[in-house]
Structures are given as structure tokens and as C-alpha cells.
Automatic annotation (TrEMBL):
CDD domains: McbC_SagB-like_oxidoreductase. It comes from Pandoraea cepalis. GO terms for molecular function: oxidoreductase activity. This is Nitroreductase. Residues 46-212 form the Nitroreductase domain.
Length: 217
């Protein structure tokens, strides 16, 4: 049996939001997803891995749009069906994007980003030192106002399945597009919820850092 290897990174415990250098856009329109190109599904599965070293280079608007559509975008316009499954079509998971210019919520129906809080909260999306240096961090939030449609005994398991599917969609897109990502569950839920200006029905449960891989040598 192989011995488990612990990842090497510094732990940051007393982070705070970073003030913005300029005014945030209230709405960011994303280009339609590019359905051509990229690696095949089987090759993407072969390449899927967790990466914790990111270059500071921002994703292009096309890459950002493709990333979010792959995560949980609408792939059946006639029904509003998503790329990620959700029991009974409740879609209790909201995808938020922590960018240098603010925290945005992804609106799958319009394929747009809507400003939630004008603050750079990347460094609050986890305790790892790299989260504030990467160009973006995705935060997956359970909306209990929608999740309460399920019986109490099923809410946590259904939400866990839904968020896992979204995170895997992102991982496979990144593997296909040559981007790096890592899923993270170690975060200060209360502090992050406050920084994102969430209400009491919205709970961040998982984060995923995305960016270009750091090139060394």
C-alpha cells in the first residue's frame, strides 16, 4: 500500500477581505460556451489531478464562461436542465466566483455573473496560502430555502451529491482545457459567508481554486 502524502502549503488563519482597487461591474456577461476543442473525456479523466501551484494570470472571458457552463450551466434550453444533476431539479447549489474585482454569483439561466459583494474575498475561501494568489476561487453554496423541498433525512446527502457533481465537472473541464484546480473543504464557513454577504439560508460547503498551472524551470 502506498503511503499517503500530505500536500505542502502554508496555513493562513487570520485573513481578511482585500479592498478593491477599482469599482466592480454589477453584471458580467459571459460568451456562449465553446463546444469544440479540448481533450476527450477519457483523456481528461486520465489528466485529472489536484494542483496547488497557480500562476497569477487571469482566465480569459471565454475560459471563465466555459468553466462556469461546465460547472452547472444550462445544456437544455427547453427544460432549463443543467450540466450537473440535481434531485428533482431543485438545483440547491449556487456557484459563486471570488475574483479580484468582487464576489459574483453565477446565473445559469442568463449565463451571467451577478455581483454579490464588492470585495476581494479569495483569501477567505480557505486556510491554504495559495487561495489568495490564484486568479479565482469557486465557492459552492447550499441554498436551504430550496433544499428544504427535500425531507430532512435526505437534504445533506442530496446536497453532497449535487456539489460533488459540480466540482467534478469543473475538474474535468480544467483537465480538458489545460487549467489547474483543486477542491477544498477546509474553510471557515461563517467568516466566508459574511465576506460573501450571504444570508442565513445560504451556507458555503466547498471551494475549488482554478487557474493556470505555475510553470517552473
Amino acid at each position: 500500500m502506498n503511503e499517503a502524502k500530505l500536500p505542502a502549503y502554508a496555513v493562513v488563519r487570520n485573513a481578511s477581505p482585500v479592498p478593491l482597487a477599482s469599482e466592480s461591474l454589477p453584471l458580467i456577461s459571459l460568451p456562449p460556451p465553446s463546444l469544440e476543442g479540448g481533450a476527450s473525456l477519457m483523456m481528461s479523466l486520465a489528466r485529472r489531478k489536484s494542483v496547488r501551484d497557480f500562476a497569477p494570470t487571469a482566465l480569459s472571458r471565454q475560459q471563465l464562461g466555459d468553466l462556469l457552463w461546465a460547472a452547472d450551466g444550462v445544456n437544455r434550453a427547453d427544460t432549463g436542465g443543467r450540466t450537473a444533476p440535481s434531485a428533482r431539479g431543485v438545483n440547491e447549489i449556487d456557484v459563486y466566483v471570488a475574483l479580484p474585482e468582487g464576489v459574483y454569483r453565477y446565473d445559469p439561466a442568463s449565463h451571467q455573473l451577478r455581483l454579490k459583494h464588492a470585495v476581494d474575498a479569495r483569501n477567505l475561501t480557505g486556510y491554504q496560502d495559495f487561495v489568495g494568489r490564484a486568479p479565482l476561487d469557486l465557492v459552492y453554496v447550499v441554498n436551504h430555502a430550496r433544499a428544504d423541498a427535500f425531507p430532512q433525512s435526505q437534504r445533506d446527502s442530496f446536497a453532497g451529491i449535487a456539489v460533488g457533481a459540480i466540482a467534478q465537472n469543473v475538474s474535468l473541464y480544467c483537465a480538458s482545457a489545460g487549467l489547474a484546480c483543486v477542491v477544498r473543504g477546509w474553510l471557515n464557513h461563517r467568516m466566508l459567508a459574511n465576506a460573501m454577504s450571504l444570508n442565513e439560508d445560504e451556507i458555503p460547503v466547498l471551494a475549488q481554486t482554478v487557474g493556470h498551472p505555475m510553470v517552473t524551470g
